[in-house]
Specification:
Belongs to the bacterial solute-binding protein 2 family. The protein has ten helices and 14 strands. By secondary structure, the protein is an alpha/beta fold. The structure holds alpha-L-arabinofuranose.
Length: about 300
């Protein structure tokens, strides 16, 4: 698709009129505070730049994302931004986008594909590294000895697979750190609470640490621990991923011990990248965010400067 519409003569001096950039954005849903921050960042940036953004919320369903992409292709959008709910099953629809010459920018989550040319770039955090950072921190905090209960993200989603992988990789070095139970809580606070309640019911005396693949699930787990009269942040050590405001509040309250940041404020980078691609510039296949770990001890100092 062209960036500039040809002059029609009706513009007076005959100067070309800039055509509005049209971008389709297929979002996973609104399962966590992190995702809402990402949606706001991309929508806000589109508005600031005068981009016509077609936004589709898939409510956690891949079928709805495929439908949205099919519709974006039919509408001949200039680019597609996709935050894929799961890693696999994208080749057919992405082949259609490629045939229509529509660049596809993956945001925050990667995919598994037999043909890497089906997407232009992935703008995201390194989830394996986040898992490693969480495990190294927990090993230090517990002197390499802990019964760990893991709350996994959405089954089949890149952050659930990779955050587990990085975490387990580091645990190899610590024979006294064990994941006793591990279950999906779908990245939501409600399910985090529900799964933690079940863990408490069966294993109350053994629970020493909780590793949650996102902050929302950790916040749900904290609620369950509080209600059970246990002591989150003290008797049970909790670490999660995202770095949302709620996690900082829980750290200030002494209930969450640490969070590994995962940057959702991708809007500016997404549209800069689309512009580069349209200008024919080469972009990296993986544009990585740099994340850091935050602990309880600095949470009060940092909370005021958090943007999400
Ligand atoms: O893909 C990023 C993950 O998805 C975030 O950690 C989580 O909160 C979100 O739902």
């Amino acid at each position: 698709a062209e960036n500039k519409a040809p002059a029609t003569g009706a513009e007076g001096a005959g100067a070309p009129v800039a055509k509005k950039l049209t971008v389709g954005f297929s979002q996973v849903g609104a399962e966590s505070a992190w995702r809402t921050a990402e949606t706001n960042s991309i929508r806000g940036e589109a508005e600031k730049r005068g981009v016509d953004l077609k936004f589709a919320d898939a409510q956690g369903k891949q079928a709805q994302q495929i439908q949205a992409l099919t519709s974006f292709i039919a509408q001949k959008v200039d680019a597609i931004v996709l935050a894929p709910v799961v890693e696999t099953g994208w080749d057919v629809v992405l082949t259609r986008a490629k045939e229509a010459n529509i660049p596809v920018i993956l945001v925050d989550r990667g995919i598994k594909t037999s043909d890497e040319s089906l997407y232009t770039t992935l703008i995201a955090s390194d989830f394996v590294e986040e898992g490693r950072m969480a495990a190294e921190w927990l090993a230090k905090k517990t002197n390499g000895k802990a019964n760990i209960y893991e709350l996994q993200g959405t089954t089949g989603a890149a952050p659930a697979i990779d955050r587990k992988k990085g975490f387990e990789e580091v645990l190899q070095k610590y024979p006294d750190m064990k994941i006793v139970k591990s279950q999906s809580a779908d990245f939501t606070r409600a399910k985090g609470k529900e799964v933690m309640e079940a863990f408490i019911k069966s294993d109350r005396e053994q629970i020493q640490a909780v590793y949650a693949h996102n902050d929302d699930m950790a916040l749900g787990a904290i609620q369950a621990l509080d209600e059970a009269g246990m002591n989150p942040g003290k008797d049970v050590t909790l670490i999660s991923v995202d770095g949302v405001k709620g996690a900082f509040e829980a750290m200030v309250a002494g209930k969450l011990n640490a969070t590994v940041e995962c940057n959702p404020l991708l809007g500016p980078l997404v549209f800069d990248t689309i512009n580069k691609v349209r200008a024919g510039e080469k972009v990296e296949k993986f544009i990585k965010s740099n994340d850091q770990l935050f602990e309880q001890s600095t949470a009060a100092q940092v909370i005021g400067s958090r943007e999400y």
